[in-house]
Amino acid sequence: MAKYAAAVDQGTTSTRFMIFNHSGEVVAVHQMEHEQIYPQAGWVEHDPIEIWDRTKDVIKEGMKKAGVKAEDLAAIGITNQRETAVVWDKKTGKPYYNAIVWQDTRTDKICNKLAEDGGQDRFRKKVGLPLATYFSGPKVRWMLDNVSGLRAAAERGDAIFGNIDTWVIWNLTGGVDGGAHVTDVSNASRTMLMNLKTLDWDDEILKIMDIPKAMLPQIRPSSDPNLYGNTKADGPVGGVVPVCGDLGDQQAAMVGQACFSPGEAKNTYGTGCFMLLNTGTEAVQSKNGLLTTLCYKFGSDPAVYALEGSIAITGALVQWLRDNLEMIKESKDIEALAKTVDDAGGIYFVPAFSGLFAPYWKSDARGVIVGLTRYVNKGHIARAALEATAYQTREVLDAMNADSGVALIALKVDGGMVYNELLMQFQSDVLGVPVIRPKVAETTALGAAYAAGLAVGFWKNTDEMRANWGIDKTWEPKMGMEDRKKLFAGWKKAVTRTFDWIE
After folding, report:
1. Backbone φ and ψ of 406, nearest 5°
2. In terms of C-beta density within 10 A (0-12 exposed, 13-18 middle, 19 or more buried), how is residue 67 classed?
3. Backbone phi and psi for residue 339, each to the nearest 5 degrees, phi listed first
4. H or E element, residue 145
5. Which of 197, 338, 368, 388 lies 20 to 30 A from 417 at CA?
6. Residue-wise pLDDT tens for the chain (503 aa)?
7. Angle at 84 between CA 445 and CA 245, to 5 degrees
8. Of 502, 499, 190, which is closest to residue 356 (Cα–Cα)?
9. Which of 297, 192, 284, 288 is nearest to 251 (CA)?
10. Rounded CA gap, 243 and 221, in Å?
11. Element of type H or E holding 463
């Protein structure tokens, strides 16, 4: 009798394997980082082979740590960095090119060209997204145009595409030996190629983008009782286990946070920051720079949609201070450094390293630190870096309130940065609402495990998952209204200084 459900959580900087019991508690976790490749300014790549190797390693080590065998697992779910595009040869399993990461901005010319007819919102009605370098469709087009022999291979049906979820599932279910070439609705909705209404690839957009349909994976439910496939006996799991859950990382966090009712929202603090609001079975078009996206689809139930505010650089800014400026040894040291000062010393740090995402969508913006004086030291810079995450979240929340007409009364948070007490308190202060951290803050992996477990009956329904959710800590706002207003006005002014930097 299976006792656990598991998840591969393939993120922007690392891959981990997590095993959960029926109560949603972590039984074991193993995690490994992978290389960030920067071939030139604005380009960000990952090696798909390295990612698959890390995936195999974390599965083996996670199972060893827990003393768990394949037969103890009810099912495996996948969650992933979204919009990161891989194209590979289905006969050899070899990628034609490195994975182009969601932060990469090389497709700006393709996006600008597409926007000449109909503007940045040319496809928004159909796909819920603006034309931006963030999404994977333009990345596939770039590869087809720039990788020698790829277009011919795609037209022959040899070259196949997927976001990272598709790459991991294909390899996990056999690879060249009958691997499943699938994705789920949440990941497909991040390509700019899927129609929100039909939940299928849009022929008109494929034609305009000049992407052969034969390359694309089959779109399946996020929790699929028909299974995507099974792991192989000689694979990293060491036995046959159903693979039947798939969610983009932010949608997985919604499921892990049990945000199953319209109006429930969460914010995930990772490499970037992503706030999602469940809008139920209706796709709400944003008038304020948010994305309309698929939240999840469980089996044959109707699809559930969400509004999303995506922020490119949050945790990545802390890594930048660590790796590029060497101001701190480890990411967690940022809090102690920021606590050496009482405030940011009048400075604002707007980390538009990959342009600005929600609610601006300006790929020509670049990062700035404003308000510098001789008084400012590295403590102030560290504090301003943390505050940037809170301010960006406030901007997204304001847009969400305007779009939905629903004022948020509390914010559920998760991800690596939620253990930073200084940031969480400042977040509550800037928003003016309580910020709530759940007992299991790694809700992304939990959501993927839930999706897989639900498909095979390990969890019977969403009520069972909701019963697992519990509060670990709540931060209440302590800042006065006037201070909040003044600080946020300064932030808005700082953001305008990043505009139109790239000619």
Report:
1. -115, 120
2. exposed
3. -75, -5
4. helix 136-146
5. 368
6. 789 999 999 999 999 999 999 999 999 999 999 999 999 998 999 999 999 999 999 999 999 999 999 999 999 999 999 999 999 999 999 999 999 999 999 999 999 999 999 999 999 999 999 999 999 999 999 999 999 999 999 999 999 999 999 999 999 999 999 999 999 999 999 999 999 999 999 999 999 999 999 999 999 999 999 999 999 999 999 999 999 999 999 999 999 999 998 888 899 898 888 899 898 998 999 888 899 999 999 999 999 999 998 888 888 899 999 999 999 999 999 999 999 999 999 999 999 998 888 889 898 899 999 999 999 999 999 999 999 999 999 999 899 888 887 777 788 998 889 999 999 999 999 999 999 999 887 889 999 999 999 999 999 999 999 999 989 999 999 999 999 999 999 999 999 999 999 87
7. 35
8. 499
9. 297
10. 12
11. helix 462-468
First-to-last alpha carbon distance for the chain, in angstroms, is 61
Look at residues 136, 163, 172 and name the one whose alpha carbon lies nearest to residue 244.
172
Handedness of CA 57, 60, 63, 65 (dihedral sign): negative
33 near 46, Cβ under 8 Å? no
SS (H, E, C) 247-308: EEHHHHHHHHCCCCCCCCEEEEECCCEEEEEEEECCCCCCCCCCEEEEEECECCCCCEEEEE
What is d(CA 134, CA 12) in angstroms, rounded to the nearest whole number? 14
The closest alpha carbon to 349, from 374, 372, 324, 326, belongs to: 372
Q: What are phi and psi of 17, to 5 degrees?
A: -120, 130
Residue 109: burial class (beta carbons within 10 Å; 0-12, 13-18, 19+) = exposed
Q: Do you find a cis peptide bond into 236, omega within 30 degrees of 0? A: no
Cα–Cα nearest to 175, from 236, 245, 260, 85: 236
Handedness of CA 459, 465, 468, 472 (dihedral sign): positive
Residue type, 258: A
Size of the chain, expressed as the number of residues it contains = 503
Class of residue 78 by CB neighbours under 10 A (exposed 0-12, middle 13-18, buried 19+) = buried
167 and 93 Cβ atoms separated by less than 8 Å:
no
The backbone torsions φ and ψ at residue 251, rounded to the nearest 5 degrees and listed phi first, read: -70, -35
Tokens 């008109």 label which residue? Answer: 204
Quickly count: other Cβ atoms within 10 Å of residue 459's Cβ.
Answer: 23
Closest CA to 96 of 11, 156, 186, 16: 156
> 269, 280 in Cβ contact below 8 A?
no
